[in-house]
Amino acid sequence: MNKKGFIFDLDGVIVDTAKYHFLAWKKLAKSIDVDFTHEQNEQLKGVSRVKSLEKILEWGNKTISEEQFNNLMASKNDDYLSFIAKMDDNEILPDVPKILDYLIAQEQPVSLGSASKNARQILEKVNLMNKFNAIVDGNDVSKAKPDPEVFLIAAKHLNIKPEDCIVFEDSVAGVQAANTANMISIGIGEKDVLHEADYIFSDFTEIENSFIQELINR
Q1: Which of 10, 113, 189, 212 sits most deeply, having the most CB atoms within 10 A of its CB?
Q2: Which pLDDT does position 42 carry in this prediction?
Q3: Residue 72 DSSP code
Q4: Helix (H/G/I), strand (E/B), else coil: 169
Q5: CB of 126 within 8 A of CB of 15?
Q6: pLDDT in tens, 133-187
Q7: Residue 203 in contact with residue 187, Cβ under 8 Å?
């Protein structure tokens, strides 16, 4: 039986935590008198907290002390955590469980590959923890996407060669990381943004089981 490794990003793929990041960053930006837009928030997707705050300061043309920088990062994270503490399985994006269940039924190894340091907590909240054979998150990696480290570690945990892995991603950096790792990249989102992906779907409702089976059979 063919075994492929299926690796899922978390934010924007399994759950939409992006809205909580946006609210937390917006609150932070407002506290230092910087306007913060949805367009700018798009540029922070898949970017580390430090780099994100550096960008916001740049956009607002602000300079702050190292101490204030660290305090702001901590308070942003506290705000974000207070949002995700209230999450439940209603937050799962449409048809994600259908695809996960199909992969489990076909005995295909499944891993999370996320930059989020809160990934395990989120999966617990939405009751999906038991669907994954491996979880690789921001606590396990030192290099951010587009570096392929997170996906290569996931492949290793699943005991599947990188070229036999399939990655679901909603960010440009994530798609680039999958491509660099020599994995099949499936973009979840807008075609014009994720055009570097091998396949693009606006969400999982567009993905048929037959398409997943095709990937397994390769």
Answers
A1: 113
A2: 83
A3: H
A4: strand
A5: yes
A6: 999 999 999 998 999 999 999 999 999 999 999 999 999 999 999 999 999 999 9
A7: no
Tokens found for residue 200: 């693009």
Confidence of residue 45 (pLDDT cuts 50, 70, 90): confident
- Locate 183 and state its tokens: 């994995």
Structural domains present in the chain: 5-15+89-217 (3.40.50.1000), 18-84 (1.10.150.240)
Mind telling me the catalytic residues?
Answer: 9, 11
Residues 6+ apart with CB under 8 A from 35: 29, 60
- pTM, full prediction: 0.87
- Asked if residue 94 has pLDDT above 80, the reply is yes
CB 186 within 8 A of CB 200: yes
Distance CA(149)–CA(100), nearest Å, equals 23
Cβ of 28: how many Cβ atoms within 10 Å?
Answer: 20
